Amino acid sequence: MIVARQKPIEEIVEMTQAFHKLLVVGCKGCVTVCNVGGAKEVAILASALRISGKRNGREVVVGEHTLERQCDPEYVDELKDILEDYEAVVSIACGVGPQFIAERYPAVRVFPGVNTQFMGGAEEHGIWSERCAGCGTCVVHYFGGVCPIARCSKSLLNGPCGGSNNGKCEISNDVDCIWDIIVTRMMEQGRLKELIEFKPPKSWATARDGGPRRMIREELVE
Amino acid sequence: MSEYKSGSNLEKVLRAGHFAFTGECGPPQGANVEHLREKAGHLKGCVDAVNVTDNQTAVVRMSSWAASLILLEEGLEPNFQMVCRDRNRLAIQSDILGAYSLGIRNMLCLSGDHQSFGNHPEAKNVFDIDSMQLIYTVKKMRDEGKFLNEQEVDVPPRLFVGAASNPFAEPFDFRVYRLAKKIAAGADFIQTQCIYNMDKFREFMRRAVDMGLHEKCHILAGVTPMKSVGMALYMAKQVPGMDVPDSLIKRLRGAGKGKVAEEGIKFALEQIETFKEMEGVAGVHLMAIEWEHKVPEIAERAGVLPRPSV
Ligand code: SF4
Ligand code: SF4
Question: What does CATH list as the number for A2-118?
Answer without folding.
Answer: 3.40.50.2300
